């Protein structure tokens, strides 16, 4: 009879250890930092947000009010700036430093591809300073803002080079 009790106790201990093993990894993983996948979700205003936070949920889309068939942004400001000129919008300082690429289709040419504009800028916010390359109409998302290069002038024409001092960049900053 004593041997049966020992076997029973061993079985109970093994079952408890198995349950403990099954529960413990889940708790350990939740305590560790989580790496979220690099997916993006398109918002109603056409911008994109990625996954953030410990549960890897999508970041909130910018607030918009739909009026008259178009979206009117309620928490954004836009300003136009030149190369090496600093602007401050909603607590963010931006200084465009150089045009890295301007492959936009000239207005007097028929193109298969619209092209792109990439601008290196110094960004300073409550989270610190950094050098970021902005692409036309591609938002950069920080913890508290979404910053988008929304317009670049002048337009390009075939055979003409734009001098760096002639560029004007319009940035839109939205609080998240």
Brief account:
The protein has 176 residues and is an alpha+beta fold.
Spell out the key features of this protein.
single chain, 176 residues, alpha+beta, Tick-borne Encephalitis virus Glycoprotein, domain 1, 3 domains, four-stranded antiparallel beta sheet, 1 helix, 17% helix
Description of the molecule:
This protein has 176 residues and is of the alpha+beta class. The chain has three domains: 1-32; 37-74, no CATH class; 75-175, Sandwich (Tick-borne Encephalitis virus Glycoprotein, domain 1), CATH 2.60.98. 17% of the residues lie in helices and 42% in strands. It is built from one helix and 13 strands; from the N terminus they run H-E-E-E-E-E-E-E-E-E-E-E-E-E. The strands form four sheets. It has a four-stranded antiparallel β-sheet, with no helix packed on it. A hairpin with a 2-residue loop joins strand 4 (64-67) and strand 5. The protein is elongated and about 100 Å long. The termini are far apart. 13% of the residues are buried. Mean pLDDT is 78; it is low at 24-32 and 64-74.
Flag low-confidence runs. Answer: 24-32, 64-74
Number of helices: 1
Characterize the overall form: elongated
Assign the CATH class of the largest domain: Mainly Beta
Helix/strand order: HEEEEEEEEEEEEE
| Total domain count | 3
Largest sheet: 4 strands, antiparallel
What is the CATH T-level topology of the largest domain? Tick-borne Encephalitis virus Glycoprotein, domain 1
Question: What do the pLDDT scores average to?
Answer: 78
Strand-pairing-aware structural class: alpha+beta
Gap between N and C termini: 69 Å
Strand order of the largest sheet: 6-13-12-11
């Amino acid at each position: 009879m004593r041997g049966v009790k020992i076997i029973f106790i061993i079985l109970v201990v093994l079952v408890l250890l198995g349950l403990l093993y099954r529960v413990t990894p889940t708790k350990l993983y939740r305590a560790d930092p989580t790496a979220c996948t690099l997916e993006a979700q398109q918002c109603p205003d056409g911008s994109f947000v990625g996954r953030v936070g410990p549960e890897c949920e999508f970041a909130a889309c910018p607030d918009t009010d739909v009026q008259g068939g178009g979206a009117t942004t309620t928490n954004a400001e836009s300003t136009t700036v030149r190369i090496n000129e600093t602007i401050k919008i909603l607590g963010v300082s931006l200084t465009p430093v150089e045009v890295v690429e301007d492959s936009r289709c000239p207005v007097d040419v028929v193109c298969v591809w619209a092209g792109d504009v990439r601008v290196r800028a110094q960004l300073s916010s409550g989270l610190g300073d950094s050098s970021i390359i902005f692409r036309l109409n591609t938002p950069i998302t920080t913890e508290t803002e979404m910053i988008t290069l929304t317009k670049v002038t002048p337009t390009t024409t075939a055979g003409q080079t734009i001098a760096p001092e002639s560029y004007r960049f319009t940035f839109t900053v939205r609080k998240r």
